[in-house]
Amino acid sequence: MPKSKVRRKTAYTPPPADRHSPQAARATAPTHPVYVVVMLGLMVLGLAWLVVNYLAGHVIGFMAALGSWNFLIGFTLIVVGLLMTMRWR
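-> structure tokens emitted (89 positions)
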């Protein structure tokens, strides 16, 4: 019985990227230092919010009025800071 021919796939070559476009330069540029400060600040602020809620939330008037919403506020600040780390270069 004759053998069937083996097909060889060609290696994938991605299209050439335009290195002189503004989008390519912006994508590889490092982030601004203020971005890092805001990112870390949000994470620390969220952590501080949760710690203050646990230690003195019942004493502080507006935190006592918020009740369980304090957890949402604290975790939202932390998550936003963590999401910002995905764009940090």
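Helices lie at 22-28, 33-56, 61-66, 69-84.
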